[in-house]
Amino acid sequence: MLRAVLHADVRVIDPIWTTQTIANIHGMLVYDTLFGNDANMQPKPQMVDKYDISADKLVYTFTLRAGLKFSDGSAVTTKDVIASLRRWGAKDGVGIRLFTFVDKLEAVDDKAFRLTLTKPYGMVLESLGKTNSSVAAIMREQEAKTDPQQQVKESIGSGPFMFAKDQWVPGSKAVYLKNPHYVPRPGNEPPSSFAGSKIAGVDRIELVWISDSQTAMSALINGEIDFYENPSIDFLPILEKSRNVKLMKTGDLDSTHGMIRLNHLHPPFNNVKARQAMYYLINQEDFLRAIVGDPEYYRVCHGLITCGAPLASDAGSQWFKEYNPKKALQLLKEAGYKGEPITVLAATDHNTITPATQVLIQAMRDAGINLDVQSMDWGSVVSRRAKKEPPAQGGWHIFVTTTGGVGSANPVLHTWLGAACDKGLFGWPCDEKIEALRNEFAFAQTDDEKKRIARDLQARAMEQVVYIPFGQWTTPLAYRSDRLQGIVPNTGLVVLWGITKK
Fold this sequence. Notes:
alpha+beta, 14 helices
């Protein structure tokens, strides 16, 4: 058995319905995907055995591997795949963009299907193998036919583990058992991020919820747990000195990218000037010191595309030229703000989002903004942020969240960078130019062209304030080296297959 403490409690079991990282970690244990992007962000087949792309790059034909079964023993067929892709393509920003160019998605037979495009969109396989949020999980047809705006009630997949729903205790633990029907990729391909052979190395995984980071650290040192996903930076020196505990860096890029999301649907933030006023409340160092503390592990980053990645630039960084709460309030008033309460969804139990939210709340109070702080656990924030009603009727104005550094390095796979109006993510930014630039990136032929488009895209997205970044950081994972081996380092969604007990 593997006992692990992750960054949040499992409250949602539908990885397509939400971008929530913990729900997608759950999803990648239970479900499989057609492709998986490796550590270099290159798509590699997973459930797919072979595929063919026509010379004009308009027709993709895929054949599934033989013997694929769901954990209930039923065979995976193209009916399941097509229903799952349609649901994902109606909910996820990357999927929505892909399906903008899909003319037909049809079964050839039970094991083969065909995707026909209207234009030679260049991000098909990368989209199917995305590794950050709202992964393109393949569900049974009966769950995949669930309205994408509603959560599935069952979590039955063809991945390496199966969800023991009868043992699930929200607020305490989520249990996963080895899927006896799982068929890993043959050849024992070395795992790399979401690619390679996914081998269930233990019979049982327990994701134990310990909200207090010091208690979780002690549990690891004392051997009560085996794996701790993101220990507090303050405790790393203690863990480094602890017998039989090792730290592991998860990748070359920073693992986490922080963001403040504003609701574009309702006043005052339906006015771009009011959104821009919020930049004057952001001193990234304040956020990063509160979350991380040690500068060795964080980076001030004024961009929306991950700093340190090939496509990073300083476009739009002028918005961070000054921290000035008084000016923020003045600009809000000029945009029509008359002192109405601003509803902030404040998570109380998240080790990074909670302190970041408190920093933002203090800056807003210093500016003299009237706040309605709604304190709740992170799972409740995830549910409420989906509401489009006015804040006074159960909606919201602001919430703080994070996203993975790897996914945020690519302008198309970076879901939060989109501005697809009501089809987009919570906050619902709406800007045709941003969407056109993201499409343009997907059709770009050269690296220079991609860099130019990425720069223009970031500048426009920051001008429109799709979200406000407050820096990026990385946290090594910690584990019991006397018990575990085979850990796959992965930035973003932690990988729990491949791990075996010594």
